[in-house]
């Protein structure tokens, strides 16, 4: 199967839900016209990132009236976008929904919320407790949000559960200036390469651009292919929509050439965990 994914490297307006919804509709319509089957937006793309005391003002459920236009558009193109989710417990979560065929098919809550240095996510948002692994028309799919991608145990577990398409919306600030590449770009490249090269997954990494209250985001969105490496690479600091092609036959080819998935033995991991727990 071959399909087209749109990487929507956008600049959301912090706290302006109405503006951001309109921007998502316009981006999704553009992707539809270009023939894309799936569009992926950055982390918290419908709300902005550095919300602080605005968090509750933009908190919504994925099936809220404000997102009705996106649900309708998902009859023509699958959509993954980030938002502040109103949990059933009333807690706001840093989440991403996956819409297709006019419905909300899945919602992922960010598991690892950085709260150190410039980051304060746990001060305002709840923490997700479950891996996102679900079946779509594109095959078994997973979602990780920004810092989640840097946790290899979780990503490798998703691969062991059969994930072939990993969606990675992000709001990664620019930091580590001084070389040809930002230091954070090198870290992201390593994470993408590991997921594709060793775990045999396509990874759609979509980072935002722009500023929230002085905090700048660098973009650099990318599509990582288990056979071809980085096949789509977005520029730094520029709002842009790029298209990439995913050929799922690359997964079988990769698994034949580097059969790590076939070699994997979860019983070894389970035994180690149980032994540690009982010691």
From TrEMBL:
InterPro entries per the UniProt record, alphabetical: Aliph_Amidase/BUP, C-N_Hydrolase, C-N_Hydrolase_sf
Q: Give the GO biological process terms.
A: putrescine biosynthetic process from arginine
| Sequence ranges assigned to domain CN hydrolase in this UniProt record | 3-248
What Pfam families does the annotation carry?
Answer: CN_hydrolase (PF00795)
Which keywords annotate this record?
Answer: Hydrolase
GO MF, one term, reads: N-carbamoylputrescine amidase activity
| Entry-linked PROSITE patterns | CN_HYDROLASE
Q: What's the name of the protein?
A: Carbon-nitrogen hydrolase
- Species assigned in the record: Candidatus Cryosericum septentrionale
Lineage runs: Bacteria, Pseudomonadati, Caldisericota/Cryosericota group, Candidatus Cryosericota, Candidatus Cryosericia
